[in-house]
Each structure stands twice: as structure tokens, then as C-alpha cells.
Amino acid sequence: MSTNVFAYAAPAAHAPLERTTIPRRTVGEHDVLIEIAYAGICHSDIHQARDGWGEGIFPMVPGHEIAGVVTETGPGVTRHKVGDRVGVGCFVDSCRACDYCRQGLEQYCVQGMTGTYNALDRNGEPTYGGYSTHIVVDENYTVRIPDGLALDVAAPLLCAGVTLYSPLVHWKAGPGKNVAIVGLGGLGHMGVKIAHALGAEVTVLSQSLRKQEDGLRLGADHFHATSDPETFEKLAGTFDLIVSTVSAPLDLGAYLSLLKTDGAMVNVGAPEEPVSLNLFSVIGGRKTLAGSMIGSIAETQDMLDFCAEHGLGADIELIRADQINEAYERVLKSDVRYRFVIDAATI
User: Where is the Enoyl reductase (ER) domain (predicted)?
Assistant: First the structure.
């Protein structure tokens, strides 16, 4: 048996989102019912609602940056209790049996993780995301939001935060490391904050100097415009690690030229179009071109604890639910600093 709750959904690809109701399953043995307080708007919500990454499941309720409070628990729940502040990120289940799930790398589940939205759950039912008033999630796929983090600025950390934290930690950003963040948007601004807090020397590579003041305020040591060809000459062989957050195709060879020998360029932004690469860009200098996908449940908890310890939240613009469609257009124009967050009380 299910319960209907209010939500904002895209009825079809490219269609404006509209208020509707969706079913939420009855709370099971290991489930928690979460009253959603805030939900971030991620660029991937737009990609999926507009079929940018392939055919979607409609009606679609996007949203995988969810912060709220537990209002009911199943009889077998041990991780959370009613009243706990919790978060839900990009996935709500995985096979739990493959090597990656057993290693705590559920995002790389061999059978495929179950996305928080635009996916089919293990029973073949569509999943609906955080642009809604409530969500039911297995306790093992929820995380605790520390008291030191306000729920509104914590919501974007459930995707944007861990998407940057995971590669920065995996590739050992820290003291003595020169790190570049490509793009200063919803992902990139958290990359700057986290890389700085880890102790790395941080450079922002942005199309123009328009956001330079913001970049330095957020913790960057240097800021350069990639539209200036001299940038690539001046910074050649500079970085140990480059993390690209942009979802548009880049001249990968140009960016790889900025790496030191044995440096790595890690992509977390996902362009809809294929990109090309001259392999000599990685052969010379024994460089690595890599990707990283969100983070595990354990990493997400580590990231939240780290952000609370260092006083890091997302820079947000709080909006009403009836402003979602306008927010989508503004995201596409890079007209947000730096993450839209929906007040779920307005849904």
C-alpha cells in the first residue's frame, strides 16, 4: 500500500515541471520516512528531465540533493530515529552483493545502483526524487547530517559536495599538491572549498575572470581565464590534479598540457556530446585522464562530517517550488551563485 504526496514532476521530456501527486511506498522493515525540508537543483536534473543523457522515465520527479527529518522508522531500523536530520543523495539502493557493494563502493555496483529518480527499483517501480514533500528510503542509503550544518546549505552537499570530495580525496589533494578546479558553478564552488580545506594550493580555471572575486573568497589561491590563450602557456606543467566540473566538451589536450608528469585530470562533469582525444596528450608525461562518479554512502558521510568540521556549506539561492522552471533556465545560463535549493514547504 502506498501514500500519495505532493511533488513537482516533468510530465514528458522538455515539458515544464508542474505540481502533482506521486505514490510513496509504505514504510518497510528497514525504511525511514523523511519529511523533506530542502532539495537542491543539480544540472543533472536538467539533463535527465530533457532526455540529454538518454530516454527518461516519465513523469519524472527530479532531485537527488535531499535534506530533511525522519518522521517514521520501520521496526528493523537501527541507524536513525524519529527526529534525526538526514540526507539522501544520488542513489537509494544497489545489489549489496557484488564486490563493489561489499567494498562500500555502491555507486559502482555491477548490477547498477538504483537512482533516486529516473530509475526502476528492485520491484520494477519507478523512483521519484526530492522535488516532493516526503520520501521513503532504506536506512542503509541515508546519511546523518551533522548538527553543525544547516539543512538548506547541506542539501547540495549530497551530490555536489561528495562528487568533488570523492576524487579530491582519492587523488590525494592536500598540502604540497597543486590542484585546479575547472568551472566555478554548483560543483566547482564546492571543489574550491573542499580542496582548500584539505590544504591544497587551489587554482580556478574559468572561461572569464567574471567570478574571480568569488573564487578567491571561496578559498582559491589563483584564478585564470581559459578564454585567454596565454593561460595555457603560462600554466603548462603546473598541476598535480585537475578536476573538471563542466558539462560542455573541452579541448582535453590543452588541459592535459597543464599537468605535471604523473598528474591526473578527473572529469566529474558529463557532456551530452562525445569528446575526442589525441593519445599523445597522455602518453607524454605519463598522465592520467580519469572520471569519478559521485561517492559511496560511507564517503558521503565522511564528506558531511568534514564539511561540518570545517564550516563548509553550499552557497545557495533559496527558491519556491513554483520557481523551478525559471531556475532551470537560469542554470543553463550560469546565472546562479551557486546552487538553487527548493524550499520543500512550498511544494
Answer: 12-342
